[in-house]
Recover the amino acids of this structure.
């Protein structure tokens, strides 16, 4: 149960060894008492035929969708208006959390329910309406299944303290229709110009954003911070997927500043004995938090 096969944000499949073949999608999955427990949806297959591994949407998950279709003729999913990522052990350590849990907010939709409730970038959502968020992918399902317009309670971890906020859930479909949820812009190819000079720290070489670098790496005009112009291949930054052209916007949840200031912040945290530091990294129109580990 609760299998995530990367089919979408609401994955919670039943995995079964019952034979599911092409054309079976949408059909019922029965238990031995003849009760429908799932809707056959997908198979794992290198060849296109059944190899004995299938996945079904649980009937309890489908029931709410059926009720909405009967009542409204369409789905009405709850919408919070945040983009989230997993809280890794390194991120948990850098934020002072006792364990990797919750869903970390790396972007808040302007004009969305979360912004109106005061949720900000860098918050970790620990619970939704009293239900603990142990793993990131639990939150989208809980929000989607919640009643649109309902006042919900979020428990947040912010700057080392737990806080509670009330949020009026919006409707996902209306947000899409109104354009509140912006479509992703395609990533362009980065330029091949020679590497500019910069300041080396923690496996990264940092430089100020110039018009040339903005054009070379296609950095959006609204993105500020320091640009990564080189990454040591064996460094933790490289292992975490940081690349030349990425922009470090925040360091430890405060603006990165100049390359000199950014390097000093990183060195200061390293000297303090902490095992990692939290960076907010932008790659064109994609953003995420990265917890950079220091060498021991």
């Amino acid at each position: 149960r609760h299998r995530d096969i990367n089919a979408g944000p609401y994955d919670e499949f039943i995995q079964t060894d019952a034979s599911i073949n092409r054309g079976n999608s949408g059909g019922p999955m029965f238990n031995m008492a003849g009760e429908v427990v799932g809707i056959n949806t997908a198979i794992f297959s290198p060849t296109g035929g059944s190899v004995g591994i299938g996945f079904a949407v649980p009937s309890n998950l489908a029931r709410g969708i059926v009720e909405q279709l009967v009542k409204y003729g369409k789905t009405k999913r709850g919408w919070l208006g945040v983009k989230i990522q997993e809280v890794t052990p390194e991120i948990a350590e850098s934020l002072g959390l006792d364990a990797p849990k919750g869903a970390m907010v790396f972007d808040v939709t302007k004009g969305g329910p979360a912004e109106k409730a005061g949720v900000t970038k860098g918050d970790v959502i620990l619970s939704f309406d009293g239900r603990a968020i142990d793993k990131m992918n639990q939150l989208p399902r809980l929000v989607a299944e919640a009643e649109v317009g309902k006042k919900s309670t979020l428990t947040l971890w912010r700057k080392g303290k737990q806080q509670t906020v009330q949020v009026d859930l919006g409707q996902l479909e209306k947000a899409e229709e109104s354009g509140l949820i912006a479509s992703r812009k395609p990533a362009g190819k980065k330029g091949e110009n020679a590497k500019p000079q910069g300041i080396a720290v923690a496996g990264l070489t940092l430089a100020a954003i110039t018009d040339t670098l903005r054009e070379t790496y296609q950095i959006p005009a609204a993105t500020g911070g320091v640009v990564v112009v080189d990454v040591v291949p064996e460094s933790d930054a490289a292992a975490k997927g940081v690349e030349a052209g990425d922009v470090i916007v925040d360091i430890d949840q405060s603006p990165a500043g100049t390359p000199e200031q950014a390097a000093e912040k990183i060195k200061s945290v390293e000297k303090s004995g902490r095992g990692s530091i939290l960076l907010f990294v932008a790659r064109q129109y994609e953003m995420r938090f990265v917890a950079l580990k220091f060498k021991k």
